[in-house]
Amino acid sequence: MARFLLRRLLYLVVLVIISTSVAYLLAATQLNPRSRYEGRNPAPPPQVVDAALDALNMNDKTPLTTRFGRWVGQLLHGDLGQTIENKPVNDEIGRRMWVSIRLLLIGSILGSLLGVAAGAYGAVKQYRPADHALTIFSFVTLSIPTVVLAVLFKNAGIGLNNLLGFTGSTKLLYTTGEITPGLDVWSWEGLTNRLAHLVLPSLVLTVVAVAFYGRYQRNAMLDVLGSDFLRTAQAKGLRRTRALVKHGLRTALIPMATFFAYEFALLFVGATFTEKIFGWHGMGEYFVDSVTKSDVNSVAGVTLFVAVLVLIAGFLSDVAYAALDPRVRVS
Amino acid sequence: MNQPADQLPRADTQRAAGPGDERLADTASIEAASRGRLVLRQFFRRRLAIGGLVTVLLLFAVAYASPHLVTWQYNELDTSSFLSPPTGDHWFGTTQNGFDMFALTMRGMQKSLIIGLLGALLSTALAAVVGAFAGYFGGALNAVLLTFIDLLLVLPSFLIIAILSPTFRGRTWLIFVLLLAAFQWMITARIVRGMTLSLKEREFVLAARFMGVPGWRIIFRHILPNMSSLLIIDATVNVSSLILAEVGLSFFGFGVQPPDVSLGTLIGDYAGAALTYPWEFYFPAGFLVVLVLAINLVGDGLRDAFDPNAGIRTS
């Protein structure tokens, strides 16, 4: 068993190494960091540009193998290199992942709890008005791209501000950033300000999560509702609600464990569209910016970060399965 | 020989479940009908699915026919009308440069539709071939293909397509479709592989093999036709997810490149104008949502129609 696990782990590590290398090589050959300097007015002399690019290990005049070798050498010491603004990629990721967490945590937890509850309720009340409402809600929400949804919520927030007369610098709901600059983060004012910034993006994330989990949980619950053990539980004297919650919901949650594991691990990866539209400087924004800024080291760093998290998520989902389903533990 | 396995059980269980006269008469005719007719009948029983199908066809027709019927084309400037709200001349208004929003939206919908359909076909075909070959031949081929699938799943597709987007700037958008499809097929391929593993032990496959039919032919003649329901549903679902993926990438400029327009580039270009010049944003966004919703309804209807238990569950 230990040998099997070790081999599995080795395989996963090899996957991470290959995928990160592919991302680095693609980025190093396709992106053009030089254009960042050449576009300046007045254009800096070529020697200066070369020196700057050399310092970042992004000079396209250096052979690709040399650049890649240097990058791997740094990586072995735990250093992901410098961003195109000459800041350590490690620090950038370390800072941004907490921004993403702060943005995602409330929306994700609220969304998955509400989604599971709504899905289970919909399954129990199949084909009643509540169930139809949930189905229609899920169906429509999942057909709207997150970008459009985020823009809709942002504009609704601005509309609400204007309607209630918050046209000055103090707003009821903020649509850009994490906190109004200059406020003390831990003061009462700072905390409420943070909350006012959080409402709209969290709402977007919650709505999407409810639609997603609601749909899957409803199906999982429907599969369980017809099963014999649930009838047995009621036959031996359990009340219906108790049987449904203790035996039904618990069983129906097992297939959801995979989704939860991935969601938990990918909290750090952030939500690209929501972050971009609401102006949060998290990992999701880093993801897009690293490409638009031709930031080779950041692209590779982000890929490594995401790949490791995806594999951790896969591992977590296996563990969650074992914890929830006794049959997995036995075999 | 190519009949899927679930036809008989379906007729049996339905007889057991339906005590009414009407249902019994229905069952008798179902047993006589072919699998294809059966699925079609199930599909057309669902009003929402038909609504979805009609909507998709209508949007398709409007997107391709309207440029021949209206005066303003997507690449024509009306220099007498900038940022005009919807009027009789410009049904969806105009942009800052005087482009006609209706023509742009229709052009964008053409591109989104074609990207979704083409990409879905490609990705489902790839999933079917890779999954079936890995499952049928096993051994080293299986190991290589599975590792490849795992690798593609670990690679962040959004990032890779974004990095490669400068290479298809100025070239055909077909490269973009290929890339989208290349990151879409992996999970279905795994499912196909699993189904192939069980199908290849069945009598009709063994019979063909002992008759000397080569492996690739068995795959295309016997194995893949037996999972056609899965593949059809997968292709339909892929259409909408590819259209959504296109929107996400084009929103950041990593997708369809100018001068081409798609619903994604329109939404990306005019998202900032949603408050001030709403017609620029809400027309393309609205058409996109209706299109995706309609395709999802068709997919859902197909899933129910192919599900052997569907008739029982709804009764």
What does this structure look like?
The complex is a heterodimer of chains A (331) and B (315). In chain A, helix 11 packs antiparallel against helix 14 (296-324) and helix 12 (272-278) crosses helix 13. Chain A has helices spanning 2-30, 34-38, 46-56, 64-76, 89-124, 129-142, 146-163, 188-225, 228-235, 240-253, 257-265, 272-278, 283-292, 296-324, 326-330. The model of chain A has no long low-confidence stretch (mean pLDDT 87). Chain A has 15 helices and no strands. Chain B has 15 helices and no strands. With 315 residues, chain B is mostly helical. In chain B, helix 5 (101-137) packs antiparallel against helix 6 (139-154) and helix 5 (101-137) runs parallel beside helix 14 (278-306). The model of chain B is unreliable at 1-25 (pLDDT under 50). The chains are: A mainly alpha (331), B mainly alpha (315). The interface between A and B is large, with 40 and 38 residues.
